[in-house]
Amino acid sequence: MSYNKAPSITAETINPKVKIISYEPCGQIARHAERLQQEIEENPGSLPFQEITYCNLGNPQALGQRPITFFREVLSLCDNPTLLDKDETPSLYSTCAIKRARMIMDSLPSKNTGGYTSSRGIKSLRQAVADGISARDGFPSDPDDIFLTDGASAAVNLMMQILIRSSEDAILCPLPEYPIYSASIILHGGTMVMSITNQEEIVEFCRKEGLVILADEVYQDNVYAENKKFNSFKKVARSLDYDENDLSIVSFHSSSMGLYGESGRRGGYMEISGFGTDVKEQIYKVASVTICPNIAGQILTSLVMDPPKLGDESFESFQAEKEKIHSSFWKRAKVCNLHFIRIDVASLDTGTKNTLEKAFQSMEGISCNKIEGALYFFPRLHLPSRAIKTAKAEGVSPDIFYAHRLLDATGIAVVPGSGFQQASGTTHIRCAILPDEEKIEAMIPRLRAFHEAFMKEFRR
């Protein structure tokens, strides 16, 4: 006998908050890029380009960035501890990596990387993170205020669970934003509004109003602007002579999206300051629901915050690899700045001036802030009304319309700005600077040619 049984659950009966959130900033473009990549492989020469340039991905190692040797040596030794007792190991690994791996293995509860740990993470690794924060900021950090997490995203979600009680609880969030924030806020029942941006103003505002600062600091090593450096919100607050009792701050960091690009390792931490013991206990309880963060991510996070020091065998090679990565990002950011930002050519050196005379300083219908850090630029598009009407007729927003046309014509994949809560009435695209320097150099003229043709087509 057969029954016409209705599904146990449908899209109409799941948690309504899940249906509200939008967490697919790269979705449509990414899927279309995959289809085009398959077309290139199956039918070479069928498209007007030979490869996809993935400027939609914030995934450094997937686009060719090499991992730091010291990090991988330590991770390898910890996962294969028998190597620590073999005679040939010193010739394969640096003594610095061997020493660090032994220290880590001695601190593991089960003496291997396959067992559970404390829900906050291994104490010695939290100490390494705290020491790194203290050295960076010049103010003390307590390992008991450190929670190691599966990337910064897990930490953000944990704090949303702790802080949001109802839709009357609002989170001030700068725009554009990374979608984890709007998605987490909505999923946990809160409301998102826009914030002020100056650090000292934010600190003073939050102190007066009794608000918690949630500081996303994952790009602290990705600073390219001259005469500028990273300052944590905790450092800013302490520099204003606020002590822990004056202001609650949660700082997030990750090994995924910053300079090192270890995205798949899912390593991160949050430092909580200005919270009472009773609140810390509740945070620990919620963290315990997921048992513990993965051990490889914990180890990697400790290495990011406590890398080889001057005098260590691995110091020079580590610094050289780190500087090579940073220099490459700086060069890619400079190329994009030269093409998208209006510049006083007369103030530049002769070589750069000659290069610029052959390039373009700005494009019609595009405005963009200078790239001073992180991995992206976020140009604003001032599109002709005819393009906006055409997009509406096709049932898509102007940014999606533009991004799809760009991908189909050039193979350049970018992300529509609507995936990042762009300001109402504006149109943007987000473009990562992660493809290698040669691809960035080759991409810019193609993007320029496409944009000029697009504007000419829809300006008529």
UniProtKB/TrEMBL annotation:
Cofactor requirement: pyridoxal 5'-phosphate
InterPro entries in the record: ALAT1/2-like (IPR045088), Aminotransferase_I/II_large (IPR004839), PyrdxlP-dep_Trfase (IPR015424), PyrdxlP-dep_Trfase_major (IPR015421), PyrdxlP-dep_Trfase_small (IPR015422)
Pathways per UniProt: Photosynthesis; C4 acid pathway
Keyword set, alphabetical order: Aminotransferase, Pyridoxal phosphate, Transferase
UniProt superkingdom: Eukaryota
A Pfam family of this chain: Aminotran_1_2
Keyword Transferase on entry: yes
GO molecular function, one term: pyridoxal phosphate binding
Residue runs in coiled coils: none
Domain Aminotransferase class I/classII large, chain residue ranges per copy: 93-195, 200-443
Keyword Transmembrane helix assigned: no
Gene3D superfamilies (alphabetical): 1.10.287.1970, Aspartate Aminotransferase, domain 1 (3.90.1150.10), Type I PLP-dependent aspartate aminotransferase-like (Major domain) (3.40.640.10)
Family of this protein: Belongs to the class-I pyridoxal-phosphate-dependent aminotransferase family. Alanine aminotransferase subfamily.
Quaternary structure annotation from Swiss-Prot or TrEMBL: Homodimer.
Protein name: Aminotransferase class I/classII large domain-containing protein
